[in-house]
């Protein structure tokens, strides 16, 4: 059996390795268009590679995928986060689960992951051809003809795994559409928000641990830490919001209003009660010196100025109107977003080959027998935290069965 794996990234390597493990007599070839193998693994997680996530509960895990979660639920029953950890650990890549549940190699270097994959592929006798971009796939009876344009002769294969990663442009998926696969338009996911007209940028570097952010006029919301940057806002809450809103935000040209709940409390009465408690116990303290919810000092002063309350006013002098003003600002502080910035640590594509075209029990195409998919080329993407690699490992593992 001749098997071609198109793409030498995380999903391609995992699929090729498992194709060879499951079918030892098969000839498995990885075709990689660039000169570099596993290039994204190398730069991932700031060079440390966030291999997977410590979440082991499938029901929870799937919530990290704005697109693909439902289908992955089934796939995770075959290969999930504990399997990934066991896979790497058993091959000498020791892993550590951080407090935020992100999983990294103990070496804190993505090279450990690359070395492991390269050794595994070499030991199994997988052939790797670089600078071999695939341009077309043609059905020839039960076989698939893999074409490289004019430069090289096409090759006939029994099975083909497509693991070409995210394509920023729809035209990059034309060769797969030509085989009758449905394509979901690609748009970026995981980005930070630009706020050119907002003075909050002066607070750059401040992290607020428990926020709830939402997009005005939509049901989109996300919680978690928020980081104020010199161009606007970033941090896990914003990145999560960008992922779940990826398609909508692209449609509205990345111009919208974001509502920030600085204390992650949706019930205003609860916040009012906290403020009333401060008034009762610390009525003599000035507003500037007593911060509710232990908000960062600079942010607290900024919010006081924004609500036009004098910093030197005493809590006891706040009054009902002042307290209500503060509640409103703490729970529904609005900022204007104009544009996005790529999150350098991790970015992914929303869209790709539609999951409607794929049978998730095998990862085989529903419209082209003997063709399989793995990784980001599909309309699957996760939030930041190791989820994107996990989907590459899971789908690569299943595709590698060639079932
Ligand atoms: C900067 C950055 C950091 C990231 N960090 C993390 C992280 O820490 N944790 C995490 O979970 N996710 C991370 N991600 C996301 C993760 O890297 C991707 O989701 C993952 O690499 C997808 O794997 P893949 O194999 O599907 O695609 P890719 O890694 O993109 O690999 C696809 C390969 O196919 C090749 N190719 C494309 N077209 C063809 C063709 N026609 N013929 C032959 N070869 C082709 C490409 O050159 C590429 O080598 C990060 C992404 C970026 C950009």
Provide a compact summary of the structure.
The protein has 403 residues and is α+β, with helices and mostly antiparallel strands. The chain has helices spanning 10-22, 39-47, 58-61, 69-76, 81-89, 110-124, 174-177, 236-244, 246-251, 268-281, 297-306, 319-331, 387-399; strands at residues 2-6, 27-31, 52-53, 95-97, 102-105, 127-129, 136-140, 143-147, 155-157, 159-162, 183-189, 191-194, 207-215, 221-228, 232-234, 255-261, 333-338, 340-342, 348-353, 358-359, 364-365, 371-373.
Question: Any descriptors?
Answer:
5-stranded parallel β-sheet; 7-stranded antiparallel β-sheet; 403 residues; binds flavin-adenine dinucleotide; 2 domains; 13 helices; FAD/NAD(P)-binding domain; alpha+beta; 32% helix; elongated; single chain
Structure description:
- This protein is α+β, with helices and mostly antiparallel strands.
- The protein folds into 2 domains: 2-187 and 346-399, FAD/NAD(P)-binding domain (3-Layer(bba) Sandwich), CATH 3.50.50.60; 191-342, no CATH class.
- It is built from 13 helices and 22 strands.
- The strands form 6 sheets. Strands 17-16-13-14-15-12-18 form a 7-stranded antiparallel beta sheet.
- Helix 1 (10-22) packs parallel to helix 13 (387-399).
- The longest helix has 15 residues, at 110-124.
- The chain starts with a strand and ends with a helix.
- The relative contact order is 0.19.
- The structure holds flavin-adenine dinucleotide (FAD).
- The site of flavin-adenine dinucleotide has 35 residues, from helix 1, helix 2 and helix 13.
- Residues 6-12, 31-34, 39-40, 43-45, 49-50, 133-134, 163-165, 345-348, 375-377, 386-389, 392 line the site of flavin-adenine dinucleotide.
């Amino acid at each position: 059996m001749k098997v071609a794996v198109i793409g030498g990234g995380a999903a391609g390597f995992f699929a090729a390795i498992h194709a060879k493990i499951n079918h030892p007599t098969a000839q498995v070839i990885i075709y990689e268009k660039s000169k570099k193998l596993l290039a994204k693994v190398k730069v991932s997680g700031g060079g440390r590679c966030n291999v997977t996530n410590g979440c082991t509960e499938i029901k929870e895990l799937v919530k990290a995928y704005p697109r693909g979660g439902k289908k992955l639920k089934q796939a995770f029953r075959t290969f999930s986060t504990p399997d990934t950890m066991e896979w790497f650990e058993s091959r000498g890549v020791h892993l550590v689960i951080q407090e935020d549940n992100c999983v990294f190699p103990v070496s804190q270097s993505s090279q450990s992951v690359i070395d492991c994959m390269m050794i595994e592929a070499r030991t199994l006798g997988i052939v790797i051809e670089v600078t071999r971009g695939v341009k077309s796939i043609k059905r020839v009876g039960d076989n698939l003809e893999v074409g490289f344009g004019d430069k090289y002769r096409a090759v006939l294969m029994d099975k083909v795994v497509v693991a070409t990663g995210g394509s920023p442009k729809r035209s990059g998926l034309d060769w797969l559409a030509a085989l009758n696969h449905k394509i979901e338009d690609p748009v970026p996911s995981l980005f930070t928000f630009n706020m050119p007209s907002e003075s909050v940028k002066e607070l750059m570097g401040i992290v607020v641990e428990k926020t709830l952010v939402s997009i005005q006029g939509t049901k989109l919301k996300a919680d978690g830490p928020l980081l104020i940057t010199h161009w606007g806002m970033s941090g896990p809450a914003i990145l999560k919001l960008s992922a779940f809103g990826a398609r909508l935000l692209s449609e509205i040209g990345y111009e919208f209003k974001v509502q920030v709940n600085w204390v992650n409390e949706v019930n205003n009465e609860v916040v009012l009660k906290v403020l009333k408690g401060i008034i009762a116990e610390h009525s003599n303290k000035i507003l500037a010196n007593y911060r509710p919810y232990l908000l960062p000092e600079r942010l607290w002063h900024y919010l006081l100025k924004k609500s036009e309350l004098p910093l030197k006013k005493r809590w006891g002098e706040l009054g009902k109107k002042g307290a209500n003003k503060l509640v409103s600002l703490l729970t529904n502080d609005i900022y204007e977003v104009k544009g996005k910035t790529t999150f350098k640590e991790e970015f992914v594509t929303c869209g790709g080959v539609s999951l409607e075209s794929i049978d998730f029990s095998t990862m085989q195409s529903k419209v082209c027998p003997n063709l399989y998919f793995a990784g980001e080329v599909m309309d699957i993407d996760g939030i930041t935290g190791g989820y994107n690699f996990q989907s590459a490992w899971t789908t690569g593992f299943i595709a590698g069965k060639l079932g």
